Amino acid sequence: MQCYKFGHVTGEGSDMKRRKPFSHGPQSPAASIYRWRPTMIASLAHRISGLLLVLFVPLYLWLLHGMTGSPEDFSDAYDWLHSPLGKMSLWLLGVALAYHFCNGLRFLSLDAGWCESRAMMRLSARVVLGIAVLVAIVLAVLL
Amino acid sequence: MKLTKEPGSARSGIGDWYWQRLAAVVLAVLLPLPFFLIIAVYTGGVDQLGLLDLLDNFVSRLLHTLLILALIVHAYMGLKVIFEDYLPQIGWRVTLIGSMLVVMSGFGIWWLAIIWAWGG
Question: CB count, 10 Å around CB of A127?
Answer without folding.
Answer: 15
